[in-house]
């Protein structure tokens, strides 16, 4: 039986842990929250209560086949992304890295920044612009140092969307103008496909490995939200320029730097990845169905 440890059991991490648990693996989930620990137990996932920002809280763990670092800010929105993504990874590697055969970092295509390349693949130079992307790029570099590169797998996620995470939905429901560039090109991945990609690559890859995780069918934000409005029976969306007050929005919600196509050929060709949601229309249909079910 394979043993997996998932550090960060949030939107993506919990799905990764559940997929492995459903497959019959011995799965541990690391969380700061005692209530989340109870949820993990109910799901058959063994909880480890620890905080990557507090290295002393990282106790002993058993040897594992795979260690996944998939942390997010959660309720710690004011925490430095460098502390969370870079320093937290360093603490986990120092304490637990030698107990793992493979180490997976859930990163972001945001590390490419405003690349001049028409099509971006894993060999495209990184030019991260924002703090989170810069911190993830530094975390990648740490995992690719000689000490860890023989175990390193880096998964660069596109814009993750899914139930409960449809950017700007509150604007659409209240028919407010959307503060984002309507022509921005979005490179998306449905959350369940993001988790499945980690499961597939974690076992099949030969480290060191870097993989872009997108559905390969980019769409403009106008196309995306026009389809959302159609499903909800609302008028077409209206867009406006983002204001400085909108900088709290996520990169995906703003549409920042989304002006290029990101290739998923490595994920598809090397790892035979197929998608539950092959494009945004299938993803939106699932999300809207989920939202309507909650309202019933």
UniProtKB/TrEMBL annotation:
SUPFAM superfamilies: NAD(P)-binding Rossmann-fold domains. It comes from Thermogutta terrifontis. It comes from the Bacteria. One of its GO terms (molecular function) is aldehyde dehydrogenase (NAD+) activity. Coiled coil: none annotated. The lineage of its organism: Bacteria, Pseudomonadati, Planctomycetota, Planctomycetia, Pirellulales. Gene3D superfamilies: NAD(P)-binding Rossmann-like Domain (3.40.50.720). Residues 8-213 form the NAD-dependent epimerase/dehydratase domain. One of its GO terms (cellular component) is cytoplasm. It holds the Pfam family Epimerase. This is Nucleoside-diphosphate-sugar epimerase.
